[in-house]
Structure formats: structure tokens, C-alpha cells
Amino acid sequence: MKPFPNEGKDLTGALRRGEITVAVYGLGHVGAPLLAAWLLAGARGIGVDVDPEKVDLVNSGKSPVMEPGVDEVFSKAVEEGRLRATTSGADAASESDVMLIAVPTKLSGDGWPRKPDLTHVKEVAREIGKGLQKGDLVILESSSPPGTTRKVLKPILEDESGLKAEEDFGLVYSPERIAEGRALKDIVESYPKVIGGIGPKSSATASELYGVIASKGVIEVSNDLVAEFEKLAEGIYRDVNIALANELAELCRVLGIDYDEVRLAANSQPYSHLHRPGTGVGGLCIPVYPHFLAWVANENSVKLELVKTGRRINEEMPRRVAELVEQGMERLGLKYEVSILGLAFRGDVADSRLSPTYDLIKELQDRGISVKVVHDPLIAEDPLLEELGVGLTKELEKALKAPAVVISTDHSQYRMKASEFFGMGEFILLVDGRHVIEVDEVPRGKAYVGVGRPWIIP
Q1: Is residue 34 packed enough to be buried (19+ CB in 10 Å), middle (13-18) or exposed (0-12)?
Q2: Above pLDDT 90, what percent of the chain?
Q3: Which end of the chain, N or C, is less packed with Cβ atoms under 10 Å?
Q4: Is residue 420 included in any domain, yes or no?
Q5: Residue 57 CA from chain centroid, whole number
Q6: How many domains does the chain have?
Q7: Is residue 101 part of a domain?
Q8: What is the distance between the alpha carbons of residues 166 and 4, in angstroms, rounded to a whole number?
Q9: Domain annotation covers residue 387
Q10: Predicted TM-score of the model (pTM)
Q11: Domain of 136, in residue numbers
């Protein structure tokens, strides 16, 4: 059933009966769970990706990414004949009623702000436009600068198809709101879905369909611009507040007090929401959003000074952690050799994109400190580490043989008492960049310091 517009149609019933086919463009950490969520609601699905290996995995009933529940959904849907994948975006569009765009949006250039790179969105838009039909619905889910849906996506779709948005087909921006490791649950259970169409008919159509998928319902905002801005605001809120935490943590360490104790006491007041500090902010989301919004702000002669400052502070954290390592080595007379625990940008995920660990390695190497190995329990290989001349291991004991150890990622495997942690290896210095260690007792002859925690040298 062609869903647009939804006037007089039973879209809820059509979706549940499998009468609506959805094509998801981009089968990564966002697209694969999105496809699974629509399949759970009853849709027929087509996965689209330029990577033939991902396409083959989906066609065999497997997920291209490690996300709980997605494998099971794909396996069942393939068995039922409701799911297939392809590298042909135009063919998928011609066979679908709803097209979801979940491809990466990136940055190019240097400085502040860096320029948004919407290459993949534009490429997909051209492919969709070739197969777009009257009554279809197109939903952009990729995080994008405000204005992308109406100024970039809409003209391409209209030029390629000869159709008019809001007259012949629906066009909506609906931001993904997920965290890796629980993406499918987030889509289906955790949060309401934000919907912003280029017109009321587009919004109404998308809202009815997503009302079936998201158990928390939908939030229908005024238009696509509001929805695009809202998504970036979510991430920038976290970036700025993490920067605040990092600044306060630095002062706590200098004063000889524990930032965690301050944070927990402050957050007992309902209007305080102090975040955790750390070695930096990674992933393709939070570090990118400030640049997207600042780029649009500059085009409109508006300065986002707080956003800029927050980003600068967080980008400096790998340098600050490297300084702690260097200070500890000098105080203890240690050989300039260190192991790093954690490559992923966040704990308990297997994603290292824009991880602050890379910057930490460079900062250490610039100081003449040799990084022998990085431990990560979830990542088996990494070409960027190879370029830096650093090994990668899943054996924690191997990593704990260096004179100094730095915790860069808050994997749950590292959460333990200091006495237990020191007892596992030969290292002398432990630099806790993620506050994962419970400081009970540091053995004599050893040393501990954390971001936001004072030196402990018994």
C-alpha cells in the first residue's frame, strides 16, 4: 500500500499485515536496527548498502552489526520471505513504499567549524529519486545540519523523479535516537519518535506509521527544521556538559578531592545533572553535531561560543591524560612505556570510530612514550592502530605487563577495586581516565591517579 497521504487509509493495519514495504539505506549501526524495528511491526523489508558483504549477511539472515535482537529478527524475516538486501538503491526504491535514509553524515576540512559532508545523503537521494513513485514516503534519519531535508534532499528527489514533495510524495525528517548496544530496544521501547515533515500531510503519514513501531509514541514537531535542530541539540547538550565535568574534574584533582564525590552529592539536588569526565568524547555523533550546528550558525551570522568552548575542552582531554601519564612516569622514574585499556569510543561497544584513544596514543607518542599495545575485549583488529604502530589484544594480562597502564574506555571488564586491579599485573602506574576503578587500597610502591581524582602514592 502506498502510504502517502494517509487520508482515509488504514496504515496501521496495512503495516501490521505486511502490505507496506520499507527500504532502509545504510545497514550500519543505525540502519540495521531500524530495519529490524519495521520488520517487527509487520513490514516487508529491503536493506540497501554499497557494501556487498553487508548485503550478503542480511540475505543470509544475519545482522552486519553487533546489536542485540537484530540477528533474530533478520533470520526470521528471511525465512518468512519478508526480507532481502541489495546494492541497487534505485531498484529498492521502485519496489518500496517507504524509504528510510540512515547513511553516515561526516565532516570535511579543519578548523572551527568544520564543513558538513553530506555526500552519502546526496548519493542515496539520487538513487531513491530514480525509483520514487507517487504515494511513497521518504524519511531522512541521518543526523544532519538544519535545512538538509528541505534544501538538499527535497530538490534532488524532485529533480530525479519529476514529482513534488508534499503533493505527490511525503518527505520527513525523523532523527535516530539510539545508543549502540541497545539500538533496537531504543527504537521500539525507550523513546518517543520525533517526526518533522515538510508539510502536514507528510508529518501525519509518518506519525501514524511510527506510532505502530515506537511504543512510547511520537512527538510531531512543526516541521523538518525543528526535528533536525532537536537532534543536534540533544548531542550538544551532552558535549557541553561533559566539558563542564572535565573542567570541574581538573580542579578537583588539583585540590586533592574526588570529583565523583562532588558529582554524586551535587546530583542529589534535582536541578543538578553533572556528567562524568573522561579521556574524551568519541563516536560519529556527539563530536560531530557541534560542527553541524555551528556551520549553520555562521551562515546566519550567529556565534555559538559556548558550543565551541565545550568542543575545545573535550578535544583537549587526551592531551591532559597524556600529561598525567608523563608526570607519573617522571615521579616514579619509570621507563617510558605504556599500555592502553580500551579502543572503543564508549564502554561495552565494538565501535572505535573517532575514539579519543587514537588521540591519546598520538599525544603519548609525541612525548616519546611508547604505546606497546591497546587492549579491547570487543575489537579484534583495527587498521588505524596498525598505522600508528600499536598492537591490539584481547588478553588483559598481556596489556598489564607494561610499567604504566591507562584506562581510556569504560568497559565493564575494567570495573573493579584498585587492590584487585593492581594484583592482576606487573604495572606500577595506573591512570584512570574513565573513573571505573573503585579506589580502596593502592599497594606500596604503586601509584594511582584519575581524571578528577588526586594522586595516591603510598
Answers
A1: buried
A2: 99
A3: C
A4: no
A5: 22
A6: 1
A7: yes
A8: 9
A9: no
A10: 0.95
A11: 11-222
**Proportion of the chain above pLDDT 70, given as a percent:** 100
pLDDT score of 8 more than 90: no
Write out pLDDT tens, residues 373-399.
Answer: 999 999 999 999 999 999 999 999 999
The C-alpha cell that represents 361 in the structure block: 596514543
Q: Catalytic residue positions?
A: 231, 285
114 occurs within a structural domain: yes
Cell numbers standing for residue 63 = 545482522
CATH code, domain with 204? 3.40.50.720
Q: What are phi and psi of 23, to 5 degrees?
A: -110, 130
Q: Residue-wise over 16-26: b if at least 16 C-beta within 10 A, else e? A: eebbbbbbbbb
Per-residue pLDDT tens digits for 268-277: 999 999 999 9
